[in-house]
Write a structure and sequence with these properties.
Elements: H1 2-8, E1 10-13, E2 16-19, H2 26-39, H3 63-73, H4 82-91, H5 98-108, H6 115-120, H7 141-147, H8 149-162, H9 172-179, H10 186-213, H11 219-237, H12 245-250, H13 252-256
Amino acid sequence: MKYEIITYNNLWINHVYKLWRRNRFQWEEDQFHELCDVIAPFAPTDYHDRWLWLDDGIQGFTVKSAYVLLENMVPSTRILQPVEKFAFKRLWKCASPSKTRAFVWQLLLNRVPTKDNLLKRRMLQHDQQNCVLCGQKIETAVHLFLHCDYTAKVWYGLTTWLGFSLMIPPNIVTSFAMWTTCGNKKFEKAGMCLIWNAFMWALWKRRNDCLFNNTIVNVDEMVEQIKVLSWQWFIGRMAKGPCLLYEWKWSPIDCMGR
């Protein structure tokens, strides 16, 4: 009986044995139409398959194009002020090492692990928030890098060395903008940006040294460390002429203009 049903549902046409095919069910029809919709835009070609970056089919993939694409995909929850846009644009042109620029970028965004940020992440207790350097106020980024008594003395020593005076601004972004616009010439502004980065990097290193190694803070040593560090960066990345350390300590502006 089974054999009879099978033979009954087959046809022999033009010397070709074909199986009889029933009509499709409705769910099969739906799948068929979905498949047609998927494959319809694709036409056979003689070209070999290759990877293609759709955002830029000519130049191909670059990290910058991927960054811009992701930046446009994620809606921004915060609108940058003009001074912030200026700071972020100028930062990446600074001659300081890349790890320092990355640190300053985090600092401008208030992402550095100061004690107040660690408290927000529940990594500290409320009674552990005091500044490492002065021990008097809560350690925020603004306090640590601008308004701490120890830091203010270092700022004063640094501006005295450079031969000018600046008011300590209310936030770090404004401080960066002020320093990177000091000077009348382009090389002077670039040099001030480098020194400002050296200050921030050296202060953070000193803060960690005090916290983890119980070292004693000393204003004069800190100022000297910033001078040496900024000189090392300058001769390695900016200097177009010879500049000895004693010359840098005597007049950094003259060294920048060589």
